[in-house]
Amino acid sequence: MIKIAIYGKGGIGKSTTVSNLAAAFADQGKKVMQIGCDPKADSTISLRGQEKMDTVLELVRKRGKDLTLDEMVRIGYKGVICVEAGGPTPGLGCAGRGIIAALDKLKENGAYEVYKPDVVLYDVLGDVVCGGFSMPMRGGYADKVFVITSGENMAIHAAANIAVALENFQGRGYASLGGVILNRRNVKDEVKKVEELCSDIGSSIIGTLSRSETVTDAEDLGKTVIEAFPESEMAEEYRTLARQVLACCEEK
């Protein structure tokens, strides 16, 4: 089982990227589980044909200790196992604690043992790396963390904070940094800025995604690019990224 956490600033294209990676892995015949750890709870929506699903936190509030594993998951594109952690009522509670509660509930119900996924993907908001949002980095969850950024200053700032959090956790059995994914926004000196970030955090760009209307077109259809436009150049970029991420995870 390869367990991967993908972090990035809100709005950077993280969920779109993770869902397309999940679809690419599924196309390779891998059993994939994607766990959305963003309070918006829309990480897996393009894998599920826009079908509504209850989040783990909503179900915990409704069902309490009677909550079953089947209630927490939905099966999406080519068998992708979809889970949404969810968040608190706006203005009440901590979203980070919500992630802790959701991941604990999945573990308690033996999700990994029951479904036996080949690849687990955690889609995690990276604007704030507090205790809850760092949960997928902890031992027993992700093995590798990848950070998505563009050349925009706020995205780079968030990526640097995530790398600092990981560095602070080294020696505690936490995940290691697998690399940086550049999701282009075509800003000035974009590659140079992200390369400087990589130099600062001791990492490298392991994959690059183009800014493409194909992504928007697929989202308008409520699907991933891999499903909606499998022959497109953008779909091939996601397949290439999936291979690059997998190669990084398999390195000793």
Give a structural overview.
The protein is α/β, with parallel strands linked by helices and 252 residues long. It has one domain: 3-Layer(aba) Sandwich (Rossmann fold), CATH 3.40.50. The protein is globular, with a radius of gyration of 17 Å. The mean pLDDT is 90.
CATH superfamily: P-loop containing nucleotide triphosphate hydrolases
Order of helices and strands: EHEHHEEHHEEHEHEHHH
SS elements, strand count: 8
CATH class: Alpha Beta
First-to-last CA distance: 15 Å
**CATH topology (level 3) name:** Rossmann fold
CATH architecture: 3-Layer(aba) Sandwich
Structural Rg: 17 Å
Uncertain stretches: none
The secondary-structure class comes to alpha/beta
Number of structural domains: 1
Q: What is the subunit organization of this protein? A: single chain
Overall 3D shape: globular
Estimate the strand proportion. 15-25%
Please count the helical segments.
10
- Give the strand order, joined by hyphens, for the main sheet: 3-4-2-5-1-6-7-8
**Roughly what percent helix?**
40-55%
Q: Mean of residue pLDDT?
A: 90
Largest sheet data: 8 strands, mixed
